[in-house]
Each structure stands twice: as C-alpha cells, then as structure tokens.
Design a protein that fits this description.
The protein has 186 residues and is an all-alpha fold. The chain is built from nine helices and no strands.
Length: 186
Amino acid sequence: MEIKDVIQKAKKNDQIAFNTLLDTFWNDVYAFQLKRTENENDAEDITIQTFSKAFDKIDTYKEDYKFKTWLITISKNIHIDLVRKRKKSIRNTSKDNEENYFEIIDDSPTPEDTIITEQNLAKLLRDIKKLKPHYQEIINLRFFQELSYKEISEELNEPINNVKVKLLRAKKLLAAIITKTIITKK
C-alpha cells in the first residue's frame, strides 16, 4: 500500500493507518532529532510531540510535499520552540489549555495488545522493566491502573496526544521485547 493511501486513511481516523505512519517514519524523525539535540530523551520526547501534532493536524497535510519532509518540518519547529522556551525562562509554566483533542480510535486490540495479554504476568513485568522509566510508567497507568487517556494526561501533566503517542510507542517497544524473548527461547 502506498503512503498516500495510508495518509488518506489516517485522515479518516483509521488507527491502523496511524500505526503504519508511526512505524514508517519514527526512525527518520528520531534520528533527525538525535542529531540536533544530541540527547536521546529530548530526541524521543520531540519525536513523540511531532507525531502527536502531525496526527492532530493531519487534515492540513498537502500532498504536494513529501510526508517525511512535513514531519521533519514539524519536528524542527517543535525543537526550535523548545529551545526558545528553555532560553526564555525556566519559570514559564504556561499550560496548554487545548480542549479540542484529536481522538485516536482504540476499539480493537492491536497485535501488540494481543501479544501483551498472552504473556504471563511475571514474565510481562520482567519485560516491562526493560523499558525506559517513562514507558514503564505509562504502561502501568494504562494497563495496571486502568486509567483513561484523559486521566493519564492529568496524572503526567502532558497533552492527551502525547500520552496516546507515548503509549503507542511503549506498546510497540514492549511487543518487540516480548517477541525477542519468545524467539530467543525457541
């Protein structure tokens, strides 16, 4: 399937299309930010924010441009804004009061969800501990404390879109760890 078709599906709120776009372009955006920031955590945070903003504004994407270029531009602007905020003042604690959050449909279990639920709890907890702490926390809040996206957003004091993208990324990383563990044992 071509990226243009995937983008059209994403514009119609297709969850699989969002997953495909995230899988396809994550490494490009992350690598771009890693070069700019020279910091893995900042690069990862900015990449999450990039996809969050891109998914929120997917209707504004014009096919005259390459999707990857559009994402990199969003990413670059987020980084510039971050640098400006850091330079401006550490005390600037203005909060984002956006009420119009982008809804990513989360009805059907993804392959990652299926793999996660099939694991026995002890093994699953051991695998979760292999994730970075912020991914461990979001997995815990969503799957063990069973909080909604909105509740997680409030708990972490982050926009709901960041929570959704971070959770999606955490599930993918956890699924990869679990799959690697299964393959290693065979």
